[in-house]
């Protein structure tokens, strides 16, 4: 478990980077000096911090694939659910989608299609690499 948490944190920090934190500082400075008035800086800051959290969790949860006691199918399901909830909660907090049935349904549909496309691409890439390695052997 300790290894998972460490791997999660490392992967999350790599995914999130430090750019959003620096930008939050710059926007806060611009807000305090009165330079930015057309977009509420508090909203920009919330969006940037939210994006940082979103990326941290989405990047970090990939550590689940290194847990040896979990099958690939279960790990993929956990990954998909955690990322879905991560995106959904952040999107709702920031009002990027409305908390109504149709927008949530569309969001869920787009997420599932996007997730399947990404994993299909990854699966094909890995399968191609395995085939190349097998041919060399």
UniProtKB/TrEMBL annotation:
Pfam families with a match to the protein in the record = DUF3021
The alphabetical list of record keywords is: Membrane, Transmembrane, Transmembrane helix
Keyword Membrane among record annotations:
yes
| InterPro entries assigned | DUF3021 (IPR021560)
Q: Which organism is it from?
A: Lactobacillus kitasatonis
Q: Which domain of life is it from?
A: Bacteria
Which residues span the membrane? Answer: 12-39, 45-65, 72-93, 99-122
Q: Does the keyword Transcription regulation apply?
A: no
**Annotated protein name in UniProt:** DUF3021 domain-containing protein
